[in-house]
Fold this protein.
Amino acid sequence: MTAFHVRRPALALLALGTGIAALAPAIAADAPPVPHKVAFDRYSMTLDGKPLYVWSGSFHYWRLPSPDLWRDVLQKMKAAGFNAVEVYFHWGYHSPKRGVYDFTGIRDVDRLLDMARDAGIYVIARPGPYINAETDAGGFPNWLVATAGKPRSPSPDYTAAYREWMTQINRIIARHQVTDGRGTVLLYQVENEFYDDSPDGQRYLQDLEDEARADGITVPLFGNHNENFFEGLGALDLPGFDSYPLDFDCTRPARWNAVYDFSHEREKLTRWPLFFPEYQGGAFDVWGGPGYEACRKLTGPEFERVFYEATMASGSTMQNFYMTYGGINWGWLSSPGVYTSYDYGAALTASRQLTSKYDQQKLLGYLTQTVAPLARTDARAATAAENPRVRVTRRVNPNDGTQFYFLRHADASDTTSDATHLTLAQAAGKPLVVPQQPGTAIRLDGRDAKVLLADYALGAQRLAYSTSELLTHVRQDDRDVAVFYGRQGEDGETVLRFDAEPAVKVVAGQVASHWDAGTHTLRLNYRHDGLARVAITPKAGGALFVLLADNDAAVRFWRLDTAAGPLLLRGPHLARTAALSGGAVALAGDTDAATDLEVFAPRGTQAVTWNGLPVATTATPSGSLEGHLDGPAPVTLPALDTWRVHDAAPEIAPGFDDRAWQATDRTSTPNPYWNKALPILDSDDYGFHHGNVWYRGHFTATGKETGIRLSASLGVHLGNHGIFTAWLNGHFLGNNPSGSQQFPIDPAWLKKGADNVIAVLVDNHGHLQEEKNGAFREPRGLLSAVFAGATTAIHWRIQGNRGGEDLPDAARGPFNAGGLYGERMGWQMPAFADAAWATATLPRHTAQPGVEWYRTDFTLDLPKDQDVPIALRIHDDAPHRYRAVIFINGWQLGRYISDVGPQTDFELPPGLLNPNGKNTIAIAAWSTAQDGGLGQVSLVMQGNYRTSLRVAPVTAPVK
Ligand code: GAL
């Protein structure tokens, strides 16, 4: 189906398309601010003059409405070697009404930025005002719909509107900048993928830049505007390129496009590093799509290795992956086209779990943060690989001569297994063909890529080269501990230089060593298989401990930087934080099963604690400490056997009292998009921007009405999955998505000369992103209603979410509420008394179109030190025609369309879910035809971890 095959012209183009500022230790909240100088040159950013390799991931706090889980995501990112997080700030999420802004609770971005500081991770701030991001109106607030000014331009209307937002968000961001040492905000993005370089476009961008500076932003301003705004009015400090080389079609996850070589762009950037504010980290999926596991497969570890290493090979030192944690389009946050989950097939799932993509990110992330010379390299010619299927790219650090060899298949999508030798350039002497060990080779097995190092100062030692990849190395006292890795079963060769032959002891595994007195090199040969260990004692003093891992063993290592130096850990599922003092190591992290814990720490370290509890350890021949960690206790979830049910669309009945509803009597609107007939029916004009909206039209029948043509606009993008259902005097007329349909009227339904009522329930699928021409202003709801056979006038009334823009529940905010009867009555709330409702069991099938609400309670008592991601699952044996809105404890966490899909499992984040007490589920099920109802509903455990993470309940009204 073509709808899934999203091609975005602006992106398609790109689809073609010493001493480092090391791993930042966490900054203590009470530490005095230390200002830093943030700059850049043509190689990289610099922090206080030191090159910084920016390895960053995107995360949207507004897609995870439980602040303690922000810390979880930030710690998981930091643990994988990300030194930065890129954050969109969402104007509409904070502003339900003109002049009203909320930065408290789940919107407390000060708290988010403090958490980033505490986690020791830089922030790349992207406050818009426009953000795109597959969110409603691309992040514009919905009250902006009812303004006339051209969006993303210097029009006075629009300028006055965005200034409200920018001044507020800028002031918050300004409190957290690296430049004055109060936080970790490193960069600030102006607008988003803005390509209008007309005089107006330039003026607009310049205005935003001036505003940012006036509001106290002192970090560099950048754009993701590709080749625009390099100079002239509106020029940015730092340009950036967005690239989604595999685009967004997850239906064929094995399909790859070519690797676009950015070295051309690299050469054009004479003053700037090559920066990718968005490089593909996954893909969004669409209603009716294949589901996020397909997207994760499309953009899996092989993709990460091949494509991310290709960006490094082109000389980029700044990469952000969109997304690293995608999250949840809870409430009505999504733009038309995308569904509740915004998992994105990212490295971290929507339920915050680590995937094999996370593991691969970590392998590369650790390299970028360990090997300082990688932040400053020039392209240099490489001798072609012996095997022509293999492509070699070489880069060299001009200051210290460290060489980087990037290997991949010439045709990136090649799946053959190829062996080759590699010719290394040598500063002195003739080129060296490696591996030297006869009968061995470097292998590229299918869609694989490798970054190999040569002439590298590895701590106090000297690496000649390795055909294994370097994960990381740490210096503890006078010992360097290094971890190299390769694919299971492949050969590796690591060669080190020493003045004289060192003592070599193989502590574990099969490693052959060979001293070459002529070249003063020690050669280690081995096969990557589990974990081998070699202790090397140079004559000149000091020590080197080499760990040779296969990929699976490598990803069990964690590097944690503390104020007292780096630690290396092996074993647990996740290592979040470490502190080192007075011979004691305090570690915090997660286990998914019982595991060994090995700690490489400075000499004299004796005591180890894990999540606050002592761990009994013994000293190992590797010079490490070894202990044991428990896994999580098993957990069982309650069954959801009994439900309460209530009929929930009294609006259908002709006698329903709608006198308190707003009359749709407006005859003018500032919205230039309303070019339809009067009266204006656009729900946005009446302050109802999200979710379901009811219309009731009264008319005095002449008896000649033979049909009615109803037209609606509900949000068409990447498929048409909005819907409306209509009734006449309680008789079902039918349903239709966005569009127009004439429904026949049975004359027997009409009450001639009396009041008749058409009731229409619409499902607003969100506002379009602002691609161009004010598209986000496209009307929502009914457009027109015209009788056949008569010209009878209809007087409409409208009702959406309670209060419209004046939210009765500001804690959950503008996107949580729609206009269903039950929502207006508070049936989603935990304290609502449903004892008078009928009991029901699920699944339940209905033959009457309409709305029913279902409620049930359940109690959890999960161990306090466990993180158990739980989802609510709806299962239908066969598709039925109904759509459900799912609430947990008053939070709208899912929209399910039985006959569209694909999502069946809806994350219930801790903090909203109470892991130690009562929880209430409420589901509004709207049967849009005669075969509706509600399927089987159950709780599913997505994972189970013993953890240091603690999650406070998010406070919000209960009734
Ligand atoms: C980019 C845009 C992002 C997001 C992404 C696709 O073009 O800047 O906000 O929409 O595409 O997920």
